[in-house]
């Protein structure tokens, strides 16, 4: 099992943080910004699709989807931030890991008055703590 990559979007769909660890296959898109737009669009479409197909009232939540080669776990925060983590399809404990990542964001970025939370995350503390929590996770193997 392993963890491939991580996307973090602001409420406007701008990718404010991206990180790769063991990404084995690349998208073939040379412009990384285009890949970010496609990922954000796919996440938005999945959520819209789930709501339209739902037989129950209220907001429907897409937490992950899986293919034979990867699993994309997704979190939409109450403030409109979106995080997506690509892993091996059988990686365990990823929803909890995503919550940990969000806590790291809150502690290192959101609570820092010197950082603009709508722009790209430039915090070395955020980056190092994110790396630490990913590399020490059981799914990283």
Compact overview of the structure:
This protein has 141 residues and is an alpha+beta fold.
General description of the model:
It contains 3 helices and 5 strands. The protein has a 5-stranded antiparallel β-sheet, with helices on both faces. Helices cover 36% and strands 20% of the residues. The relative contact order is 0.21. It has a single domain, classed as Beta-Lactamase. The chain is globular. With 141 residues, the chain is α+β, with helices and mostly antiparallel strands. The longest helix is centred in the first third of the chain and has 22 residues. The mean pLDDT is 87.
What's the layout of helices and strands?
Layout: E1 3-9, E2 15-20, H1 32-53, E3 64-66, E4 71-76, E5 82-87, H2 94-110, H3 124-135
Antiparallel strand pairs: 1-2, 1-5, 3-4, 4-5
Helix pairs in contact: 2-3
InterPro entries: Longin-like_dom_sf, TRAPPC
Subunit structure: Part of the multisubunit transport protein particle (TRAPP) complex.
Subcellular location: Endoplasmic reticulum; Golgi apparatus, cis-Golgi network
Query: What is the structural class?
Result: alpha+beta
Largest sheet properties? 5 strands, antiparallel
The helix content, as a percent range, equals 25-40%
Give the total of beta strands.
Answer: 5
Beta-strand content: 15-25%
SSE pattern, N- to C-terminal: EEHEEEHH
Return residue spans where pLDDT drops below 50 for at least 5 consecutive residues.
none
At CATH's second level, what is the architecture? 2-Layer Sandwich
Work out the count of structural domains.
Answer: 1
The rounded Rg comes to 15 Å
Number of helices: 3
The CATH class label is Alpha Beta
Shape: globular
CATH topology (fold) name: Beta-Lactamase
Q: Which strand order do you get reading across the main beta sheet?
A: 2-1-5-4-3
Distance between the termini: 6 Å
**How confident is the prediction overall: mean pLDDT?**
87
